[in-house]
Queue: 4 jobs
Job 1
Amino acid sequence: MRLLGSCARLRRTFAVTRRGHHVRIDDAKLGGVVKSLDPNSIELRITSAGPKGSKLRAGKGINLPDAALDIDLLGSHSEDALQFAAEGADIVGLSFVGRAREMQRVSEYLDQHARAQVGIILKIETRRARLCICRGYSWPRSVASGQPE
C-alpha cells in the first residue's frame, strides 16, 4: 500500500518517518510497517486489518507512533481554550501529548488560574511520548495510555 503526501504537512511528517516505523490508519483498523519511502510517499507492508479485510476511505487519520514529531502541542489557539477551561471546566483533555513539558505547562496554568483543581486526561499517541511523560514528570494527576508495552 502506498500513502501519498498530497499536502505540505503530510510531507513534513514523511520527513521524520523511517523504514521500519509502524503506521496505524483509521484508529488502528489498518496497520502496517514502512517498507520504503521518499519525500512524497510511503510504501507500507500491511500487518493488520479486519478479519474480512479493511476498506480505506478518504479523511481517515494516520498515526505514526514511532516518528519523532517536533510539534508544539500548545500553539496560540490554546490560550483561549485554557482560559475557558480555567473558568469553568472540571476536566481538560489533551490529545497528541508528546512531552512532559506540555503537561507541565497546562498543569501550571490551571493551578494558577482555575477556581479549583481541574483534572487532565491525556491522549498519548506514541511509545516515545509515553516513556518521556511517565519518566519525565511526577505529578498528582493520573496518566493513562493505550499504547502497547
Job 2
Amino acid sequence: MVFRAISIAVLAASFSLCIKSNFMHSRKRAISEAFLLSDSVHNLTPDNFNNSALENPLPVVVDFYAGWCPSCPQMNNYFSEICAENSNLYCAAYDFDNDEAIPARYGADVLPAFRFFCKGEEDESRRIDGALPEEQLERDILDFLEKCD
C-alpha cells in the first residue's frame, strides 16, 4: 500500500513537471516567434552571426534574449520600434538558447544584452546588460549611430 502511494505521488509529480515544461517551452517559442516577426529585426544564428553582424557594412546592434527572460519581451518591443525608425542600422536578435558560445564571447551573461558593432568591431564601451527605459535605449542607439558613421 505504501509503495502504491509513493508510486502515485511520483507519477503525479512527473506529470506536473511535464506540463510545466511544455508550458514554458510553448511560452518561450511564442515569445521568440512574436519578436522575430518584426520586419526590422533580423534573426541571428550561430551559422549567420559572423556574416550578418561582423561583416555588415552598416552599424549593427544585436539583442541577445531568451524566451525565459522576464524583461526580454518588453525590451524586444522597444528595440523593434527603434529599429523600424532607423533604416541606416542593421538590427539583429540572437536567441541565447540557440548556442551560448556566441553570447559568452561578447560577455552577454545578463539578459537582455545589447552589443554594438561598427565596421566589424564591437564597441565594448556601449554594452547594455539588463532592462532599461525605452528612452535610454533609443538614446544609446542613436548616439552609437552618430559616432559610428
Job 3
Amino acid sequence: MYLDLLARSLAVETGTPDAAARLHGVRVLAERALAVGVPGDLLQAGQLHHEAGLLLRGILAAHGATDRCVILLDSLAPDADPMAGDTVRARFASYGLLDAQTRFAEPAAQAENSSLAMAVLDISLAAPVLDALYNRIAPGGFIVIPGNEDPAGRQAVLAFRAARGIAEEIEEIDGAGAFWRKGA
C-alpha cells in the first residue's frame, strides 16, 4: 500500500499523462531485481526531479533492503548545477527518504564504485551513461529507459548496443518505455 501511494503521489507531481505507467514499470522491474537477488545498487540518471529515484528508494525501504542504495546522477558534466541537487535532496527529505541509502553522484565516475542491479536512464543521457557504467551493471541487472520517445536518443542506445554486441531483447514496459536484462 505504501508503494502504491508513493507512486501515485509522484505520478501526480510530474504532471505528465504517462508518469503512472512509467513508474509502474520501474517498480515492477526493481521488485523483480530484489526478488531474484540481482546484486548491486539502483541508479537513476538524467531526470531532474528524480521521481523514479524516489520510488526506488521507497522500494528499498518497503522491502527492508538495507544492503543497497539509490544513486542519483543528474548529468555527466563535472560542472553540473549544484542547485538542482539541493532541490532533489529537499524532495527526498519531504518523503522521509533522504538518508545514507540515497547517494548523489556527480559526475558519472563517482557512481562507478559499486555494481548496479538496475539503471533507470533518461533517454537523452542513456547512451553516454551506458558507455560510462555498463560494465558495473550486474549480470541479470535491468537497464530501463522509461521514456523512449526521442528518436536520436533511441538511435544512440541502439548504436551502443550494436557496438557492444548486446543481443538481449529490448522489451516494452507499460507502453511508456523499454528495458532489457543484462546477460551473463
Job 4
Amino acid sequence: MFSSAYDATIRRTNFETANSEEILDADLFGDENLVHSFDFTPDGHNIYAVDNGGGLIHRDLRAPMHTAKRWHLDKHKVGSICLNPANPQFAITAHLKRYIRLWDLNKMAHVPVGSLETETMAKAMVLQYEHQKACSSAVSTARLSRPCTSPTREADARWSSCAVL
C-alpha cells in the first residue's frame, strides 16, 4: 500500500509486517511541497507525483531517493496526475487554475530541472484544456478514449471529458 502524508512524503507500507518505508520526500526540493497525487508506470519501477507548488516529481524506485527530479508545471497547485496505462509516456494533470494538461513524459525527461513552467510547457506539454472552474482530479484509463476529470463543484459534474489521448 502506498500513501502520501502532510510531512510531504510518500510511503510504502506492508500491513502484514507493519513496516513502512519512505520512497519519496518532496521536501528535498524545498519547503511546502505537499504531495497531492501520485501514479506509477505499469512496471512499478517509476513514480510520478504532483505537489501544491506546481511541481512534478519523478523517481526511479530502483535508484536512490536523492536522484529524484522535479519540474515546474505551474505557478499554482497541481491537484492530480494520472499516467495512461496503455501508453505510460503520457500523463494528464489537473490544475487549481482551471486547466487539465496532457504531458509527454519522454520529452519531460529532456527538460532541464529548474526550468520555468513556460519552458516546461513549451517542451513537454502536448495539449491543455481550460475549464470554467478549478479541476481537482483527472483520470485516464486504457478503456477510455478520453481522460475524465472531476471538477471541484458538484454543479459542474456534467463536464467529464477534455482531450483525446
